[in-house]
């Protein structure tokens, strides 16, 4: 997935793409849906010079509303947003993480998500991506 993340801008033909890569489960902030959404939004806001000081909510309810808005606000045809999320199977059940309740059902234009997970029926999160 690291190689995929490195090649995204070239594949899109957009050097200005905002590429956010997370290796889920490697840090406390990448182990649950709340921490993952917060860190993704913080990186996206920092990448946009006009939104560097934007406050990202802490509580899950506010984050669930803020996350799709953040993606839509910062994505454009010249600045697509690409989330590369590795090891989705490492995400905790907290806050609907494994059921992917936090992932928008329909992605805004110019937003792409690349996911990976281990195979196996014990990983209930992947079928939710279809």
TrEMBL record:
InterPro entries: NACHT-WD_repeat, P-loop_NTPase. PANTHER family: BETA TRANSDUCIN-RELATED PROTEIN, DUF4062 DOMAIN-CONTAINING PROTEIN. This is NACHT domain-containing protein.
